[in-house]
Amino acid sequence: MTKNQENLTKSRDTHQVEDKPKRRQFSPEYKKKILTELEQTHGKRGAVGEILRREGLYATHPASFHYSSIVI
Q1: Is residue 48 within a helix (H) or strand (E), and if so which, with residue range?
Q2: Which residues contact 35 (CB under 8 A, 6 or more apart)?
């Protein structure tokens, strides 16, 4: 076994990867804040996309936030 192969084997043993990544959970306050901010952007071109990018959200998140606020 070469030195390179030994280093690869050692690095694989020391780095462990989670089996399944954790899902993000958003608090009701955060959801309400985002929905309120999105409602205020009505008619402003590109504003929704800007908010979603800033917060690291997907386009489906606001819909699920709205649905969860109705159910609760």
Answers
A1: helix 47-55
A2: 62, 65, 66, 69
Are the C-beta atoms of 65 and 26 separated by less than 8 Å? yes
pLDDT one-digit tens code per residue, 35-71: 999 999 988 999 999 999 999 999 999 888 877 766 5
**39 vs 1, residue with greater confidence:** 39
Would you say residue 69 lies in a domain? yes
Domain carrying residue 58: 25-72
Number of domains into which the chain is organized:
1
Predicted TM-score of the model (pTM): 0.63
